[in-house]
Task: inverse folding
């Protein structure tokens, strides 16, 4: 990323597919100056393998390996393992592609050898040629659980097996309270040349809140004296993808960028919202930058990333102006 | 297998591919009246998965899933997992097909849940529609190790990674001395209607000796008052497949059916040898049945199986004649 017009380092907070789109844009602009802190609340053990859906989505996206049509997993994927597993009477509710499986097997092997998830993820990112740092939010276990019309469900049962159909009443992030900051995340947030923190347009409840639910993380984030900017996952009162709008309605709030602003109140200094959400910008009591936020191509991702970095720079300038 | 002309039950001893060919023939003739006791000396942990090469060869062969062209693994196999694993910098010296992988993942999962290898194998055999009983030689670990020109090597390193190239000086079956008989193997060998025990044409040193090296097994085999018949893996002083002849030369013996007879001396009551080994039959001081033993098709397997069962019946008849 030589010739980048950006100086200093940045931290992004991301869930899976939606957040990874912005992370890609940021990564193309910032390269090794970007650390993406990724939600691990969805991680689970399945078939004896450790599965980290959000980390993998970010890895594949930044490595240029993700399947853009299907919207998840690897491009050129095949499903012969799953077919054979079904033939053996194995569990087949969670789809694991043949290529994707290599990542789960290799990660599980390295974890069993005693490496941390942070070390394993760094190793795999290097192997895949990813220049930015992909950091699990913690090496300690945090599990997102859903209180729903079907009772309390582990995240993947709710998200994949029940396909978010049960009505969501509340969320728990088991383990978050005691989860420790990894050295890598602490270093990223405490970097002297840190210029901004960007919350990617992931589902605030399912993907970003598990990160913020860790007091150790929240404290380090708040101690970082840099602008915090979120990119809203809502466009024209609907989520681009996934259950964000449905969950907002079930939690009794209007699916809107205003709701996103209120959700992150006290935490963010500015919000990037879609151009179509024009009426919203007045109601949001925060600096707002409007731009088309739908990301279909890598160029879209880069454009929205540029907007988020611009808002960071603008907020940093303003902060400097009011400084004594 | 209704209408079978065979009464009673049989036990076969088998290694992987070579032995599985005869096991297939026996299985087609005997169905659930056959128990195949399979070598587990080659079993090993790889990538966090428990791999049982000989059990899998027998499973796939009897389920009609084996790849006849390649000679190992599953038909219609794909290799996308391996390719992706190599891309992650993972270990790629041991080839695991995408479909084959399902078996290793499911077996490892069930073993971790506390099931025995015998239980897991029975479950998988049922799922694959195999009527005969496929029994691991023991649920206790036995590891075949090779003393070679490259030092002592675990079996798979010798067999797969070094492709049997190092000169073999000796073999060890670590754990064999204390390995216990499983209930399933004990029941098969002690069955009141047992009619014969057949040693399949597997490599005597690498595949059959690990089974016989268990004192618990050898004692149960010798206590079974039925004919024990071996099918020679040697045709015209060469092994049909694999390193049997090479190993015999390295151990200082001539690759021949006579050597096989001498190797199993005191244990077997008769030997099935190939029609081409005519000169041998006189030198072997045991009842011999000659028949073409090359097995290329399922019909070949059935024909050789019929010969082995015929020799068992003949020996049982003779035993009856000399009984008081």
Result:
């Amino acid at each position: 990323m030589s010739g980048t017009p950006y100086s200093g380092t940045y931290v992004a907070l991301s869930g899976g597919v939606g957040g990874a789109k912005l992370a890609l844009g940021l990564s193309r602009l910032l390269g090794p100056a970007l650390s993406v802190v990724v939600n691990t609340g969805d991680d689970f053990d399945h078939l004896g393998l450790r599965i980290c859906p959000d980390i993998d989505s970010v890895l594949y996206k930044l490595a240029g390996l993700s399947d853009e049509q299907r919207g998840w997993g690897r491009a050129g994927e095949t499903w012969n393992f799953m077919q054979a597993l079904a033939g053996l009477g194995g569990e087949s509710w969670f789809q694991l592609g043949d290529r994707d499986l290599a990542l789960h097997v290799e990660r599980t092997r390295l974890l069993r050898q005693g490496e941390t998830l942070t070390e394993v993820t760094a190793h795999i990112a290097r192997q895949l040629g990813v220049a930015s740092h992909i950091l699990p939010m913690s090496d300690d276990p945090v599990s997102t659980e859903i209180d729903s019309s079907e009772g309390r469900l582990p995240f993947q049962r709710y998200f994949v097996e029940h396909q978010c159909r049960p009505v969501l009443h509340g969320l728990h992030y088991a383990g978050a309270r005691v989860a420790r900051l990894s050295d890598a995340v602490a270093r990223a947030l405490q970097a002297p040349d840190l210029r901004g923190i960007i919350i990617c347009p992931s589902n605030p409840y399912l993907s970003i809140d598990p990160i913020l639910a860790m007091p150790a993380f929240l404290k380090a984030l708040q101690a970082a004296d840099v602008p915090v900017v979120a990119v809203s996952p809502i466009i024209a009162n609907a989520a681009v993808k996934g259950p964000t709008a449905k969950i907002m309605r079930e939690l009794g709030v209007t699916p809107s960028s205003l709701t996103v602003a209120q959700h992150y109140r006290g935490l963010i200094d500015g919000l990037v919202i879609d151009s179509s959400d024009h009426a919203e910008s007045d109601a949001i009591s925060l600096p707002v930058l409007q731009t088309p936020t739908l990301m279909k191509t890598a160029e879209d991702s880069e454009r929205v990333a540029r907007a988020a970095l611009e808002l960071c720079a603008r907020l940093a300038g303003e902060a400097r102006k009011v400084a004594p």
About this structure: The mean pLDDT of chain A is 93. Chain A touches chain B at residues 47-49, 74, 77-78, 80-85, 87-90, 97-103, 105-106, 108-109, 112, 123-124, 127-128 (CB under 8 Å). Residues 298-322 of chain A form the longest helix (25 residues).
